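look at this record:
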Amino acid sequence: MATTIARALRDGVLEPATRAVIYSAQRRLYRYLTRRVADDAVFLNYGYEQDPPMGLPLDAADEPERYPIQLYHATATQAGGLVGQRVLEVGCGHGGGASYLTRALAPASYVAMDVNAAGIEFCRRRHQVPGLDFVHGDAEDLPFPAESFDAVINVESSHCYPHFDRFLAEVSRVLRPGGTFLYTDLRQRLVCAQWEADLNSAPGLHVVLSRNIDAEVLRGMTLNSERMQASMENVAPRFLRRWVRDMLPVHGSAIYRNIRSGRDSYWMYCLAKADESPR
C-alpha cells in the first residue's frame, strides 16, 4: 500500500482530486511511521555520495548519518551557502537535515515545516538547536507572509504534493527578490519532461542550475543500507517486514532497482526569484 501510494504520487499520472485522496492516506501513513520509529531515525532520504567521495567534515555525532546529510549539504550549497540567510525548509520529515544545516551552515534563522503534525512533535522533542524552529503546515498553502525568506529548501518531498504548481507558486510568494529555491527530488522518467516544464514555468522563478544525480543517490543508498535497515527494523509487524525491506531506499530494493534501470530519475535544482531592486 505504501509503495503504491508513493509511486502513484511520484509518477504524476493521476487527476488532482485522486492525488489529494492518496495524499491524505499518505499523511496518515507518515503519522503511523513517526510513532513507530526510534528517536535516532531523523533522516528519511535516500542518501548521496560522489566519486571520489565527498569527504564532508562531520562531527562524530553526525557521522552515522553521513549519506543523508550529504544530500542535504549538496542541495543547500548550490548557490554558495546559507550564512546569514532566513531559511525555510518545506517537508522537513524528522528534522535531521534541518538540524544539520542550522548547525553547519550558520543561517540567521531556519524554519522547518511539515504536514505531519506527529513528525513536528517528534522534531521539537528531538532537535534542540538555537535558531531552529519547527512549524506544522501545508506545502501548497505556506503559513508565512510574502517575501519572508532568502532561501527555500525542499528535499525528496515534492513528489507527494497533489498540486505541484501550487507549491511552486507558494515558494515564489514567500521568497524575497533574489532569493533561491534549493531543491532535489525524483520522478518516473516518462513524466520528467512535464516536471521540467513545470519548473521552467514557475511564476517568478527561473532555473539556474540542474543536474541528474542518479549515480550519487545509488551510491549513497548502497553505503547507507545498513543504517537505514536498522532504523526502520521495527516499523512494521513482523509478518510484513520482508515486504517493507524491499520498499526501503537500500541496495537491491525496488527503489534502488527503479533508479538503476532508468525507470526513475533523480535530479537536483537551484532556482532563483527575479531581483526586482532598481538598477
Q: What stands out?
A: The domain at 2-273 is CATH 3.40.50.150 (Rossmann fold). Residues 248 and 255 are 7 Å apart (CA to CA). The chain has eleven helices and seven strands. The two ends are 54 Å apart (CA to CA).
